[in-house]
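Friendly challenge for the regulars: who can give me the structure tokens for this chain first? No prize, just bragging rights.
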Amino acid sequence: MGNRDAHGVDLDPDGGLPVDEHLRVAPGVWAAGDVARYREPHTGARVRIEHWRLAEQHGRAAAADIAGRGEPFAGVPFFWTQHFDLELGYAGDGQGWEEVELVGDPAARDFTVFYSREDRLVAACGTQRDEIGAFIELMREGRLPAPAELRGRDTAGLPARLAGRP
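First reply, four minutes later:
Bragging rights claimed.
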């Protein structure tokens, strides 16, 4: 039996609250953001992501559900970070990744690293904003390429795939 500090709700070992696909902890109780452990709809993994960008997405989804207009949460986790003059974007959930595909040139600070698990892309990280943006939308739509399609390429070409071009 886990901790019971949330009035009868079993907390995860790290203090997170397990939620369903509507971000409900229990009938009439929702959790969003840092505390919510949810099933990431694109990878199936149970995740707890502590970043304000996802908290915003969760908040909107939980509010819609509270108002009776909710659908299962389907947002793609995304954040960015700035280290001096290097900005990195990260999308998806790469916990437990098995393989990586590097596309681009890290020395030129023009690259995207794609993470895969069980032969499916689960996350992307890099400096190529257009690739990361297209990754998010393609993940949401369930149209990401297989990892092998990225192997040995100079560019991933995800913006073209998003636009319906091969």
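The chain is about 20% helix and 30% strand. The mean pLDDT is 90. Your move, everyone else.
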